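Board work, copied verbatim: histidine kinase
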Amino acid sequence: MTLLLSRTLISALLYFFLAQLGLQLAIPPGFASAIWPAAGLALALCLVWHPRILAGVFVGSVASNLFVVETIQIESILIALGIGVGCCLQAFVGYQLLNKLTINNKWILSPIRIRSFIIKAGPISCLVSASIGSLTLLASQQIEITAFSFTWLTWWIGDMLGCLFITPLLLIFFHKEKHQSKFKISQVVAPSVLIFSLVIIVFSFNKNDSIEKANQELVADNQKLALQFEKELERYLIYLRAFKGFYLGSNFVDSVEFNTYASNLIKSSDAIQTISWVPRVPRGKQEEFISQISAQHNRAIKISQLTNITTTQDLFPIAYCFSPRDGSEQYLGINVSSEKNRLETLTRAWRLNQVSLSKAVLSNDKLNQSHFYSGYLFTPLFLNSLNQERQNDNLIGFLVLEINYQRLFDNLIKTTFNPSQINHYSFTITAASGTKVYQLGDIPAANIKSSYSINKVGQQWSIDVTSKTIYLYNRKDWQSWSILVFGALITIMLQIFILWLTSNNNHIAKQVKVKTRSLSQAKSKAEQATLQKSYFLANMSHELRTPLNAIMGLADILKSSQLTEQQNEKINKISQASHTLLSLISDILDVTKIESGKIELELSPFSLTSSLNKINALFQEQMEKKGLSFKITYTEQNNHWFVGDSHRIEQILMNLCGNAIKFTEQGGISIIVEQSKYDAGKSLIQFRVVDTGIGIEQNRLKAIFDSFVQEDSSITRQYGGSGLGLSICRKLVTLMGSELTCDSKKGIGSRFCFELILPHADIVSTSEIDPVKEKAQAVKNLENKQVLIAEDNDINQQIIAYQMEALGAKLSLANNGQEAVNLVQSNKFDLILMDIQMPVLDGISATRQILELENGHSTPIIAMTANVSVQDKQACFEAGMQAHIGKPFDVVKLHQVLNKALGNNINKI
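↓ predict structure ↓
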């Protein structure tokens, strides 16, 4: 008994939980769910624990249905009981159909039994709850007959999906020890769950989109209603202005003239309850007022009070009153200032000399014995209103227009919304005081609501429109329904296929899984290898620069010493080989940066003529030594100054020329540059590099632009090279928005072409760098100056120290960033040369700490590092460094940077 009670309680709790989950996927208005996992749970628990646990299923079903209603009433309890009976009866029918099939727990291994299970557990047994539940909702008038088929079909599909997914899963779980060697739950569940999850996602998005469209339509209608309300209030203000002009333009207006004018003015405004003339009557002239008004109306008029409130000075009784309906006489003589709300509105209108609207007042129509909320528009009239100059004594009275909010919003709703669909909504109008001045229809529990606020006549109004259940039913979401149906069919077919495949091909599935895992690992290793390659090349390019800086630096030091001619020749060859190696390292670094997308163009004004002269100076001597002709032809138009990355343009031309020199043994090389007008402020520059070298086979023209590729392996052996030059050129040209092409004939030569569209730049005054003057200036700036060198490599320390001592500087050395910080704490330096990658504390961190010290906040710090990427330079500048010198460094460049830094003429160089 204890076990049964425990299982019944567990069944109730599980059913309630899964029912709440299913309700999240309900198609609006929510009576039928897209998938109902609780149905599959009930069937599985019956098959495993016997139908005696259906009491728990019944309790869970009733509780889940009562949980979603706002107020529990007899009707909602009866509906929940009817649905609960349907759920239990469906689970019991499913138990009778499937008990014998699943009793030996081997049904999953037979395709025939799988098919029988799917048919009985899904389409057949699920007819029960869908039918009983839909009929219960229809009988309780929760749905209309037109919505019955939609509700029934959605309910049936939801239960069927729940049974076909949850029931097999739970049966396998409860009997997993009997399937351990033959079956794995994930093989059945994972693919179908994945597919159906996608279906649910699409369904949810579409359902939300449908609700959002319904909401947008409701918002549009609500805004239209608010606009009509604003227009109506504006119309009333026009009436009051017209009446005011009529009054001020007449010497005297009697009751007949008042009623005639009012009748003609407001005859088309059904929502105007009354329009009244309320004169200002001093307390000493009450009898005179009563006598005059009684005479005009041919009956005795008395001044009456609305409440016990009395004004201290004047009275404001209604002298004339017109109503489109009968009964206006009942208002005559009422002192409107005897009621707090109207007194406040009157006073505000008097003080501001403008129309003022009262708070909502609950009015009583004595003729029709009805109550409604009204608003009173008070318009003050002064003797000299035309010039807007008034004193309190100038007030002669008020025109008061009473608005019947009930009629007003009845009329507005009928003109804004389709009359046949008004019962689909609930309308609530709230005035500034928080008073609900209008209510039409019961406020439903539907989740589509539009609230709109307007500010008119100094008051804030809130217009709320809420859709009812019938609104959503009339907007049947067939698109979401179709997604659900077709998604369910696809998922069910997938489930059937996987069950059959699993039961017949368990061994094959295991083998496939093993192979798949191997392929996945291989793919992962391949991807990792690609990433490691890029990282390795970039890292090695950096690491190679450090010893290369030492080699080139030591070569420069040896050049300045006393050497024999033979020694000097060898040093020159070392230097030449070092520069070749540096060029190769730079190419490798460029390839890795291009492949990783980290290369950026540095745009600045440059002279194309200067760039071409630089290339001519660089290659002219090489050409002469090799016995080749070299010619640069530049067709210039007006201005040779452009905005672009001159370094990358020169790099492209130098690589193409270097390549041409390598493969040309006779004849010559030409660089042809043609400039033509492209657009206002821009020119089209065409570049052609033509050689008379060995040429390239036609079938190899595309391959030569790949990294590490040359025309064939014999070329590498004969001519050398890394195969990176052309690849870099093409990628740089592509980065500039153009294309590098090649025409070539074997044995005749090659022609490489590209074109760039460059904006014009203003002519910049330039001067050639004089190495001798730069060094002399550096000596002047650094002589006897205290310089700190932070460098962890001993050889590089010696090289930098040699160059700085040659300039007359007094040096201090730090082997890491922390030592540099410690030295600055106790010493004042005129300049700090900072490496970036150092042990203990790196150069970036050390720079930040030094700049916070009293001795270091104004000291120029220059990065001297092998980290040469754009990102590395930016990191140095952001840390507070003033300049960046890449390793291996050029001595002339070093002198130039030092002069700018110490002369405070530096801008992130």
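DSSP finds 26 helices and 28 strands in the chain.
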